[in-house]
Amino acid sequence: MPIHDWTRVDAGIFHHFHLEWIAEISRVLNRGLLPPNHYALAEEVAGPMEPEVTEIDLYAAKAKAIVIRHTSDHQIIAVLEIVSPGNKSSRQRLRAFVEKAENLLRAGVHLLIVDLFPPGSRDPQGIHKAVWDQFLDNDFELPFDKPLTLAAYTGGPWAEAFIEPTAVDAPLVDMPLFLAPDVYIPVPLEATYLSAWDAVPDFWRNVLTIPL
Q1: CA angle (134 as vertex; 129, 140 as ends), nearest 5
Q2: pLDDT digits (tens, 9 = 90+) for 106-151
Q3: Which helix (H) or strand (E) holds 7?
């Protein structure tokens, strides 16, 4: 299924889809995709709120990420984040997202970021460059015809990034979620996106699919 243009609906509709997609990915991970000594949980990401809180900020604060833990000590091994509109709604919220990503990677936690929203004035080359600038000066540019970002990272002192630019109307590709610097599992983004799409109300499915 091609990626939809989620800028055509408000944050609450994407939030509903976001929760369904997180649940679908977690289900697939826990039903055999992860090694037996790992498990996935959907955990709420509740960062500090700004003094003036908008509806889009509230949805961002309620967003969930998928956290992979190891059964030996239940420490976090990896995190999968799906970017919401609220993560880019202000400089403060974008900075909070970027700082969280940086802190995870520097702590040795591996990361997969899925961003289906185009760059804006606060992230003119997308979410990856905003994150990667915290590690090194880089001249990364998104292709003009692929403004959306799928980004997989290995954490630790020698963090690495694997970037897959994409676009509205393009199919999603499987992306690696690293469990160790040299071990990863392919996350079936396309299949889980399709399952989550089934939970979107018909009215909003039509809004997202009927040509403008």
Answers
A1: 25
A2: 999 999 999 999 999 999 999 999 999 999 888 899 999 999 999 9
A3: none
The residue written with tokens 């990364």 in the block is 140
pLDDT tens sequence across 73-87: 999 999 999 999 999
The fraction of the chain above a pLDDT of 70, given in percent, is: 91
Q: Which amino acid is at 115?
A: D
Q: How far apart are CA 161 and CA 138, in angstroms?
A: 12
pTM: 0.92
Residues of the chain with pLDDT under 50: 46-51
Q: Which residues pair with 110 in a beta bridge?
A: 78
Q: Which residue has the tokens 């990503």?
A: 101
Tokens representing 11 are 């944050």
3-state secondary structure 158-191: CCEEEEEEECCCCECCCEEEEEECCEEEEECHHH
Q: Extract the tokens encoding 24.
A: 């679908």
Strand 175-180 and strand 183-187: the pairing is antiparallel
Whole-Å CA distances, 86 to 35, 44, 56, 83, 144:
33, 14, 5, 8, 24
**In which residue are the tokens 């403004």 written?**
147
